[in-house]
Amino acid sequence: MFKNFDKVFKYTFKNQTNTKSYKSMLIVVSLILLILPAAIMAIANKVKKDDDNTIKPSGASAVYVVNDVTPDVDYDVLNYLGVENYDHIKYMTYDSMDEALEVANYGTDVLVLHFEKDEDEMKATIVVPEGSSISEDDADHFNDFIDQNETMVALLASGIPMANLGQMSMPVDGDIYTVSGFQNGESLMENKEAAEAVEANAVKSVFQYLVVYGTMMVLYMVILMYGNGISAHVVMEKESKLMDTMLISVHPEALVFGKMLGVLAAGFLQIFCWGISLVLGFVLGTILVESMGGSLGIISFFKSMTGMGIFTIPGIILAVVAIVFGVILYSSLSCLAGSISNNREEAATNNSIFIIVLLASFYIVLFCGLSDISNMPIWMMFVPPVAAMVLPAALLLGTIPLASGILAVVLLVAVTLALTILAGKLYKMMSLYKGNKVKLSKAIGMLFSKA
């Protein structure tokens, strides 16, 4: 039955992978999937660091203040705001800028701060004296301190009387607990492992959605790209009138199986390379972030995936099997269309069954499964056309019990093999058919008829 199957497979696979467009897409997409995750993680880490409220030191040990509105104000209260690097500065007040600058010229680590009222707002100006060791960047850090505490600075500069101003500047120390941690008196700030677990759980729901949606979209695009072309490959010899010659050395079933698997092998090679590139991209991103001393929730999530039952070895193996046979399932539908067709025009018409099943499965998952991924209806795992879309993600995420997953995969494989064998038998039956155009329903009826 499968005489010279390997030759058909090798020939089809070579033709698929030896094109410029195939190689370009493989390389370009692999590079994008390698670089993009690492770049996004590095940028996210930088943004997280930039959002940190810790202000860099200004290098000033003293600040000379000139206030045109209220000259007699004790600015030392700013040292009690609890801002790191700005809790030991000596503030001295002067009546004029000339006097303050003259005195400041005798110091090397001094800044002059000038308050003046501009219409309905208080304007603060920072002056770096001549010969000061404080750079413009350092002075800008002090400006960041003023901006961050503008309410308190404005209250001081405006001279509003407040008897308990010191209490207003008292820092509030916050902490975060889990229920068990609160009962045990251990905060997340003290328990690094618990803090990472909280971050990981925060990422988990988003990651689940991305895996399901991403897996479904990749499978949909691969099936659409390669499944559509399979019927054209299957009907090629019929259209070119080479069928009679080829059937001398190649069995019809070996011909259809070799062509289908040759096309799909090219697709699986792309998926494999893209998947490896994506994983390496996240690994590279993790290395970059940790080398910079940073930490992201997604990194904590990656480290705790095993404990969450995500991406386990059995789940990965079953998911790979589900992906392979899921793609073959839809491809066998395209083979059915090509098996009963005599030319590409007929194959395109008969291929409507493949398109209808693909679109129906896609939209069923889109509208019935993605709304609640953790509680996705179990029946979706056991209806082969729909299961091909959603079962791989469910196995990877561990949202389906292992026993049920194995049963769902076995059912998917059985239906796929049945459709593939049916496509081969139809191709064999119709290979020398010279009658009128045959529809799929009639062809299947002819296949099982006793006549």
Termini separation: 23 Å
Q: Report the helical percentage.
A: 55-70%
Name the strands of the widest sheet in spatial order. Answer: 2-1-3-4
The radius of gyration over CA amounts to: 35 Å
Describe this structure in words.
It is a single chain. This protein has 451 residues and is mainly alpha-helical. Helices cover 63% and strands 6% of the residues. It has helices at 5-17, 20-50, 97-104, 136-148, 150-158, 165-168, 179-184, 192-234, 236-239, 243-246, 252-291, 297-303, 313-339, 344-350, 352-368, 384-397, 402-430, 440-448, and strands at 62-67, 90-94, 110-118, 121-127. A four-stranded mixed beta sheet has the order 2-1-3-4. α8 (192-234) packs parallel to α13 and α8 (192-234) runs antiparallel to α16. The two termini are 23 Å apart.
